[in-house]
Write a structure and sequence with these properties.
This protein is mainly beta and 118 residues long. It contains one helix and six strands; from the N terminus they run βββββαβ.
Length: 118
C-alpha cells in the first residue's frame, strides 16, 4: 500500500492503483499529545477513465466522498485541487480530469466471517 502526503495535514493510503482505476483512503493527520500522530479517516477517493460519449470527451472521472460526520475544521478547502494535482502528477490519471466531491455517511454494513472480537 502506497502512502503519500497531501497539503501536510493529509495522507492518501492508496489501496489499488493501475492504468484503469485508482482507489485510496484520505486521512487527516494531527499531532498527538504523546509525540506521535493521530490519523482520522475522512474520505475515500476513486478514479477511472470514462470513454467518450456524444457531447462528452473521453476523460478521467474521480470521486472524492468525504464523511459528513467529521468536524469541518478537519477539511481544507484547497483539498480537492491538491488531490486533482496529485492524481495528474503521481498516478496513471491524465487530463482531462473531472473530480467530483461528495459528502456521505455510512448507513449500515454487511459482515461475512469473523471481523470483530467479542
Amino acid at each position: 500500500m502506497r502512502v503519500t502526503a497531501v497539503l501536510d495535514r493529509y495522507s492518501l493510503l492508496v489501496a489499488g492503483e493501475g492504468p484503469t482505476a485508482i482507489v485510496a483512503e484520505l486521512r487527516h493527520i494531527a499531532p498527538s499529545g504523546w509525540g506521535g500522530r493521530v490519523e482520522t479517516p475522512v474520505g475515500v477517493l476513486s478514479a477511472a477513465p470514462i470513454p467518450a460519449e456524444p457531447e462528452m470527451a473521453a476523460h478521467w472521472r474521480a470521486d472524492l466522498t468525504l464523511r459528513n460526520d467529521i468536524s469541518k475544521d478537519l477539511l481544507d478547502r484547497r483539498l480537492p485541487d491538491a488531490i486533482a494535482d496529485w492524481l495528474l502528477q503521481a498516478t496513471s490519471c491524465t487530463e482531462p480530469l473531472l473530480l467530483n466531491v461528495h459528502e456521505g455517511r455510512g448507513t449500515s454494513f454487511v459482515q461475512r466471517g469473523r471481523i470483530f472480537d467479542d
